[in-house]
Design goal:
The complex is a heterodimer of chains A (about 190) and B (about 210).
Chain A lengths: L9 H14 L2 H21 L4 H18 L10 H17 L24 H16 L3 H12 L4 H8 L3 H19 L4
Helix pairs in contact in A: 1-2, 2-3, 3-4, 5-8, 6-8, 7-8
Chain B lengths: L8 H9 L4 H11 L3 H19 L10 H8 L30 E4 L2 E7 L7 E7 L8 E3 L3 E7 L1 E4 L2 E4 L3 E4 L4 E2 L2 E3 L4 E7 L3 E3 L2 H6 L6
Antiparallel strand pairs in B: 1-2, 2-3, 3-11, 4-9, 4-12, 5-8, 5-11, 6-7, 6-10
Helix pairs in contact in B: 1-3
The chains are: A mainly alpha (about 190), B alpha+beta (about 210).
């Protein structure tokens, strides 16, 4: 944890997850916690969770990472992507009107899709090139993506907030996705 | 293959971001279970979410947060009660819900409301429409997503078979008709008020909720 945070690469994070899955390494867990828990808390705060709940959900996310680490498939998703889906699902469960019988995570739409197209390194590289592609997006498209992931995020709400017609919000989002497509393609 | 109907890229993005209403999410999950191409799109969007998450500024965790997490690592995992048995023919995406009995709001029309709509939330309904019968012509004030479970229906956008999804945005207006020899059963999520045109259909409206 003396590693400066910016120095943590996608490859390093995936290796830490592998150490948690295979060796049940508490040290690797602590390093993952130091990186992800504060960011998951920011994610929850931005989506409107009160501070105490944001902290709880960040804790739950990291506990789920520990419990399910062996399900992490580095050929399917990078470490950050996997943690994101866990945090997203926990938030959805927390918002549910009725107590769920099963969590969103248990019902996740993840039938195995054949042999993983990528190695762990390739997946990590994809996250890296995506990071670069995101930085190159026009400001407005980047903002719309940020809003859809980290703010009120229903497209109708974004439209009302910005005073931008819903159709325009959607077409700009679609344009952003098209621009990112090259970086998002599983095979570059 | 190309005439299959899929959800829009924006809707798949909203699904991946966690921004869809529960009812809409269930309809999309129903489609995803049978559509590798859309699963791929969702995974791409999730990768976008992960990349953006990693770039978020770090919030301050409370003192002792890591120690508290470490102390809980060996806690037993809470077991969830098993879901109730799912009636035959229904998709796994409905496994978390109690499914009631068919009601018959009109001849040839069957309806099970799974999630009643509220002012804030979309409703989720199972609809069964007899062959050749038209769904009441309607418009809606919010997003409507419909997944065909069996049979088929036709509207201005074409013919929708099992596995297809029809996506109708705000202000859309359509008259779906059950297509083919068997009844069309679909799962539909509607945000906002359904506005039926016909006086008879308006009598049916209260059964859909608000």
């Amino acid at each position: 944890m003396s590693v400066p945070d910016d120095a943590i690469t996608p490859e390093h994070l995936a290796a830490l997850l592998a150490a948690v899955a295979n060796l049940r390494s508490r040290q690797a867990f602590a390093a993952l916690f130091a990186h992800f828990a504060p960011r998951v808390k920011t994610y929850m705060l931005r989506l409107g969770a009160p501070s105490a709940q944001a902290e709880d959900l960040a804790q739950e996310t990291m506990l789920t990472v520990w419990r399910k680490a062996e399900r992490f498939d580095p050929a399917m998703a990078g470490a950050a992507t996997w943690v994101f889906t866990i945090a997203r699902n926990l938030r959805i469960d927390a918002l549910r009107r009725e107590r769920p019988v099963a969590s969103v995570d248990e019902l996740a739409d993840t039938p195995a899709d054949g042999p993983g197209a990528e190695t762990m390194l390739e997946t990590a590289q994809a996250e890296r090139s995506l990071r670069a592609a995101l930085a190159g997006l026009p400001d407005e498209q980047a903002m719309l993506l940020r809003l859809s992931f980290f703010e009120d995020h229903a497209h109708g709400d974004i439209s009302r907030k910005l005073g931008m017609p819903l159709g325009t919000v959607k077409s700009k989002l679609r344009r952003a996705l098209t621009r990112l497509r090259a970086a998002l393609e599983d095979r570059p | 293959m190309s005439d299959h109907h899929h959800p829009s890229e924006e809707t798949l993005l909203a699904h991946a971001s966690g921004g869809l209403d529960e009812a809409h999410r269930v309809v999309i999950a129903t489609h995803l279970a049978g559509c590798p191409a859309c699963r791929q799109s969702v995974r791409r969007a999730e990768r976008l979410g992960g990349t953006m998450l990693a770039a978020l500024p770090a919030a301050e965790m409370s003192k002792g947060a890591l120690e508290a997490a470490l102390a809980r690592l060996d806690e037993p995992v809470p077991a969830l009660p098993p879901p109730p048995p799912l009636p035959a023919g229904l998709p796994a995406s409905l496994a978390a819900y109690r499914i009631g009995r068919w009601r018959r709001p009109a001849p040839g029309l069957g309806l099970i409301t799974i999630l009643p709509p509220t002012a804030q939330r979309a409703g989720l309904h199972l609809l069964r429409v007899a062959p050749g019968m038209a769904m009441p012509a309607h418009g809606h004030s919010g997003l409507e997503l419909t997944a065909v479970l069996s049979g088929a229906f036709a509207d201005d956008d074409g013919i929708f078979h099992a596995g297809d999804v029809s996506e109708c945005t705000e202000d859309a207006h359509h008259t779906p008709i059950a297509h083919g020899a068997e009844p069309c059963i679909c799962l539909t999520a509607v945000a906002g008020r359904l506005r039926f045109d016909h006086w008879l259909a308006r009598l049916v409206q209260p059964l859909f909720g608000i």
